Amino acid sequence: MRETSEELAALMRAGLQGDETAYRRALELIAQRVRGYVAYGFKAYGYRGEDVEDVVQETLLTVHLKRQTWDDTRPLEPWLKAISRNKLVDHLRRKGYRKHVPIDDFAEILAAPTNEAAEQLGSTEDLLVSLNQRDRTIVEAVSIAGHSAREVGDRLGMSEGAVRVALHRALKALAARYRGD
Amino acid sequence: MRTDDLIKALAADGATRPTAPERALALALLAGVPLAGILFALFLGPRADIATAIATWRFDFKLMVTTLLLFSAIPVLMRLARPETSPRTALLPLAIAPALLAGGVVIELITTPAPTWTAHTIGHNWRACLTIIPLLALTPLAAVMIALRNGAPASPTLSGAVAGILAGAISATYYATLCTDDSPLFVATWYTIAILGLAVVGAIAGRTVLKW
Questions:
Q1: How distant is the Cα of B124 from the closest Cα of chain A, in angstroms?
Q2: Are B119 and B131 spatial neighbours (Cβ–Cβ below 8 Å)?
Q3: Which among B140, B195, B173 is positioned nearest to B30, based on CA atoms?
Q4: CA-based angle B144:B149:B151, to the nearest 5?
Q5: What is the CA radius of gyration of chain B?
Q6: What is the DSSP string of A44-104?
Q7: CA geometry: angle at A152 spanning A147 and A157, to 5°?
Q8: How many CB pairs under 8 A join A and B?
């Protein structure tokens, strides 16, 4: 079942208020939509790469780090499309793809058939290697292993707060690596 | 890494609500505007005859133009900090202050004899104008740029340029209380050059600093 725009916006709003479960669900739904935008964008640009999931992951990172730029009194999709388009264009430029096709018209896109691609690997994996060992451990523990910040802190002998700070820095560093900074 | 795993990491980092772009910009202005004012008061200060100058329309008019530019640039920049804003329409309010200034220029041309126009345009302080406005704008420009890094502007270059205009308007407002050249002809020439220069600096900086 596909949640409507209103339901997604409500989840995102709750997530922004600190509801972690709602936020996670919102990100899952956002990932589905972004996957649709990116696949459509690849096609519109005539780009045949199979790296859709790389752009999806970079977009998700940006959505997260720039979530404050969504005006929560407005619909989420235009904002999401703007971020997706930006990341898509960046990605294609990095790939040396220069053909100019304006895709202002992201409007009428269906989301890609849902979850199968969430199993795919994206290049976040390769970028993780560039983090320092501790940050990498933290990111992998909360993501792949699914531990909470507190559990990770207990294991590494760090406070929960310190884990959260390190996680946030690591995610920002990942986003910067995507940009090639 | 699977996308689902990445989402887990992002959700784990979602507990705090980051600062909204409007708030970040407001904070930057609350710091940058007084700071530039303190620097101005310490090293320059207003002209000695400011009490009588205030009674002349030309002095009040130039202050009106710079403050109007300042206050019209703030909401423009706040809008530009969001990724879905279309820059073209967002920029429109920036035309208000120049339009007002153009009106002032017309009045000046009508009310003063043609042989004095050149002298009014060149004035006495254009070197000071072109030095002080850019220098005094540096602190507000830095503050505003830092605040904008929190946003996600659709066009980093354009947002940088508007940041330069905003910083220039702040600095020009202070400078206007010092400068004894009050003719709209002077303001339209030299203030414009100084502020456009800042727009270029902001645009160049924005290209890299505001990329997200």
A1: 46
A2: no
A3: B140
A4: 100
A5: 20
A6: HTT---S-HHHHHHHHHHHHHHTGGGS-TTS-SHHHHHHHHHHHHHHHHHHTT--------
A7: 165
A8: 125
B69: Cβ contacts below 8 Å, ≥ 6 apart: B94, B96, B97, B98, B165, B169, B172, B195
Are B12 and A20 within 8 A, CB to CB? yes
- How far, CA to CA in Å, does A33 sit from each of A111, A145, B211? 5, 25, 24
Question: Is B36:B174 a contact under the CB 8 Å cutoff?
Answer: yes
Q: Which of B7, B81, B150 sits opposite A31 (nearest CB)?
A: B7
Whole-angstrom Cα distance, residue B129 to residue B44? 12
In the numeric block, the tokens 């459509």 are attached to A40
The answer to whether the Cβ–Cβ distance between B6 and A82 falls below 8 Å is no
C-alpha gyration radius of chain A: 17
B156: contact with A, CB 8 A cutoff: no
Is ipTM strictly over 0.95? no
Chain A residue numbers with beta carbons less than 8 Å from the beta carbon of B6 are 57, 60-61, 122, 124, 143
pLDDT tens for B33-82 read 999 999 999 999 999 999 999 999 999 999 999 999 999 999 999 999 99
Nearest C-alpha neighbor of B142 from the set B42, B8, B29, B12: B29
- Give φ, ψ of B66 to 5 degrees: -70, -40
From B17, which residue of chain A is nearest by alpha-carbon distance? A16
Residue at A181: amino acid letter: D
Minimum CA–CA partner of B1 in chain A: A125
| B6–A142 C-beta distance less than 8 A | no
Contact A174, A128 (CB under 8 A): yes
pLDDT tens digits, residue range B139-188?
999 999 999 999 999 999 999 999 999 999 999 999 999 999 999 999 99
As given in the structure block, the two tokens for residue B181 are 């050249």
- pTM comes to 0.89
Burial of B98 (0-12, 13-18, 19+ CB in 10 A): middle
Of the candidates A27, A1, A31, which has an alpha carbon nearest to the alpha carbon of residue A12?
Answer: A27
For helices A5-16 and A20-44, angle between their N-to-C axes, nearest 10 degrees: 130
- B125 touches B2 (CB < 8 A): no
